[in-house]
Write a structure and sequence with these properties.
By secondary structure, this protein is an alpha+beta fold. It has a domain of 164 residues: NADH Oxidase. It has a 4-stranded antiparallel beta sheet with strand order 1-2-4-3, with helices on both faces. Bound molecules: flavin mononucleotide (FMN).
């Protein structure tokens, strides 16, 4: 519980090597995760090579330095390639070139990634996820030589922490939990739920720096704006088509 409750993302890593048994535990924890039909339709690409990490950082993660500097970068991929090949070898016709199969595989992949993160943190390592994987899936496919029916879903950088990062706030439980059925939010509920987050001085700074009216606009106008959401949606859909996951007819 302590590992879970004390989680903070770590973006600066020391040069201390991650020993093989520590990495093995992380992989075993990932593999132990629940997964659809026990098919394990994911793969984990472990990157230690500096040239590859630099390439991933530049072309795959918008230059976010933790990717280049972490001792290990793990790219978690939805993978129907291996399972499809097994079916083909066994005279079993695979039907996994569609969106549902991809979507299912992303769930398995994410569960494996989070298990890996918890195992890493329980052994004293720090982790950070990188959502840039979804913006630059095509570039990562190229760098990591991912074949058809394999798409990167998320990336974690890991290593021993070289910073003490502050615990970030979370919404109150009433924001995320509904009893028995969903109770929709009144304006008053929304005011109440977001009041604490909006009062955080650091966030007030973002609002001032970007000349905005409030914190919600930091998300809608800067961090996750419509234009980027649409541009990268189209790019990702193209990648899914190219990787053979959009045969839905
Ligand atoms: C799917 C996903 C994508 C993320 N992408 C990035 C990223 O690209 N860069 C980054 O610095 N942190 C990234 N993060 C880390 C979040 O910013 C972080 O988890 C969140 O702000 C909460 O902070 P905490 O993890 O320290 O509690 C990502 C986290 C997740 C789960």
């Amino acid at each position: 519980m302590n590992t879970l409750f004390e989680h903070t993302s770590i973006r600066k890593f020391s040069s201390k090597k991650i020993e093989e048994p520590v990495l093995e535990n992380i992989i075993e924890a990932a593999a132990r995760g629940s997964n659809t039909g026990n098919m394990q339709i994911y793969s984990i690409v472990v990157t230690r090579d500096q040239t590859l990490k630099t390439e991933l950082c530049k072309r795959g993660h918008f230059g976010q330095a933790s990717i280049e500097k972490a001792p290990i970068v793990m790219t978690f991929c939805a993978d129907l390639n291996r399972f499809t090949k097994w079916c083909e070898l066994r005279n079993a016709e695979p039907g996994y070139d569609n969106f549902l199969s991809f979507y299912t595989a992303t769930i398995d992949t994410t569960i494996a990634a989070q298990n890996a993160c918890i195992a890493a943190e329980a052994q004293g390592l720090g982790i950070c996820y990188f959502g840039t994987t979804n913006y630059c899936a095509d570039e990562i496919i190229d760098i990591l030589h991912l074949p058809k029916h394999v798409v990167p879903v998320t990336t974690i950088a890991l290593g021993y922490p070289d910073e003490k990062s502050k615990k970030t706030e979370r919404l109150p439980h009433k924001a995320i939990v509904h009893s028995e059925t969903y109770t929709d939010f009144s304006n008053e509920d929304i005011e109440n739920i977001y009041a604490e987050k909006e009062a955080i001085p650091e966030y007030q700074g973002y609002i001032r720096d970007n000349n905005l009216e409030n914190l919600a606009q930091v998300f809608t106008k800067v961090r996750y704006n419509t234009k980027n959401n649409k541009t990268f949606s189209k790019k990702l859909l193209e990648t899914l088509k190219k990787q053979g996951f959009m045969n839905n007819d």
